[in-house]
Amino acid sequence: MDRRGFLAGATLAAAGLAGCTDQTGPVRQERGSGELPTRVPFAAGEPDLPEAAGGVPAGYFSYPAEPQPRKGFPYREASAPITTLLQGTAAVAPKERNPWWQRIERESGFSFALNPVQSADYQAKFQVTLAGGEVPDLVQIVGVPGLPNVLDKYFTDLTDFLAGDAIAEYPGLAAIPTETWKIGQVNGRLWGIAQPRPPAGRICSYRGDLFARHGITAAPELRDGQDFLDLCRQLSDPGRAVFALGANLAGWILPAMLEMVGAPNDWALEGETFTHAYETEQMKQALDLTLQLFRKQYVHPDSPSAGAENYTWWQGGQTSLYLQSFSGWGTYARVNPDWRLGALTLPKWDGGGPAAKHLSVAGYTAFVAIKKASDERVREILRFADFVASPFGSSGELLINYGVEGTHYTLTGSDPIATAAAKTDLPTGLNYLGGQSSAVIYTPGDREIVQQQYDYLKAVLPTGVKNPTEGLFSDTSSTSGSSARRAINDLQTQIVIGRKPLSEWDAAVDRWRRETGDQQRRDYQEALQRR
Question: Which of 113, 103, 111 is nearest to 78 (CA)?
């Protein structure tokens, strides 16, 4: 989910709205100072590759040989178990048979429940939970209309607990990069904790082993769009059901084309005037280029109807390129070292250097909030969050992300190499609570991938383009904007597969402006003036 998708979100059903927003009155307008937590880096040993401009994290070729213990744990004063509502996949092994879960409880001092909900089902679960009034201690926040009111009604304003130097009470949380804290900030107040990640947006990754089958032995240096088309042609053999790409055309391939033609990152801001990418000539150019890719059979023909199968096609060798988030690069490299994964630096379509990367926020957009409680209980829960957010190079981080030595990983030198038990015992979900596995660049036992990722981020982050509406809330975007966005997305899909002509685009944008776009623009301009 990107930042726009988080702030806009899907409109809740009537029952959810009644439980979430109708009882809270007008949208809360109180402004905070905007002060963020003061970062205090964690001393985990000298990195092999230092942090660099633009949000490039430090890189490590091996795990620190002597992980540092977390001081202050186990916590001895927990008043009650911690309940959660988080996205993720459930562990196969329940707590009573799960040494990872048991060890975390023992070393942190907290008992906690963990029943992650798959992301596709999370919006509905979130809605029902808030409507029912039984709010867990920790809740992952997804987009709702009237977001400031929802936060104010159900959750704790964490500004006084964490802003500025107050964060020093929680050294794990204090190590989270400053930019990541902006994700949980609404109207200048701090409402939650996010998982840090590099702000690298989407990447075009490739399997080096499949490239080698096509005679490509080094990462291609693409000078312009024609070079990209030539590469796609080289990677495609429709007669053998082999294609360069396979993905939802409007949702994943079109955004890559938008970067290459220099379109805005969702919105552009000149002075105090916002212009949406829909309204630009670059959008029409990108739609036409995506259509060309499809017609030339460089894209898997089932992409319009089965784009969610893109990983299956990539895994099976039917496609060589895979559009994904940056964090997936390291994940797949660890599981499939023989793939020799890399990422293309996409060029400007007309040449002249790399395309400006559409940056994401510096973390996962669905931050985790703490339900309203006494100050003492909030501080307890923050202690638990501090353990989960144990920084790279600490014993806590090794436990949270790799499990128990001898059960979930074995050491090769100082590098934790996963065993089969890691797949059954370690669920996803808990690490959304500030987990720092992606706060540095590190892949166990793979120095080459670490160097490649670092070099890629150094190339694209300093010149990347931010979405200027980040941190600005538009209630219109999450109400009328939701249905209008679906209509626009449907038309984009029909255009890029050749079922509707590009000539229908301008009329659709006019409708979007009347129904929601112009009001969204006013919302953002007003929010910008209040910032």
Answer: 111
β pairing state of 138-140 and 84-85:
parallel
What pLDDT is attached to residue 209?
Answer: 96
For residue 478, pLDDT beyond 50: yes
Classify domain 10-199+364-460 by CATH architecture.
3-Layer(aba) Sandwich (3.40)
Asked if residue 74 has a cis previous peptide bond (ω within 30° of 0), the answer is yes
Burial per residue of 121-139, b for 16 or more beta-carbon CB atoms within 10 angstroms, e otherwise: ebbeebbebbbeeebbbbb
> If you count them, how many residues does the chain have?
531
pLDDT band at 3 (very low <50, low <70, confident <90, very high): very low
Per-residue pLDDT for 238 more than 90? yes
**Angstrom distance (rounded) from CA 383 to CA 192:** 14
Q: At what angle do helices 447-460 and 326-335 cross, to 10 degrees?
A: 170
Taking the C-alpha atoms of residue 245 and residue 223, their distance in angstroms, rounded to an integer, is: 19
H helices then E strands: how many in the chain?
23, 12
The DSSP secondary structure of 437-506, one letter per residue, reads TTSSB--TT-HHHHHHHHHHHHHHSTT-B--TTTT---HHHHTHHHHHHHHHHHHHHHHHTTSS-GGGHH
CB 429 within 8 A of CB 114: yes
**Fold (CATH) for 202-358+472-530:** D-Maltodextrin-Binding Protein; domain 2 (3.40.190)
Largest CA distance in the chain: 67
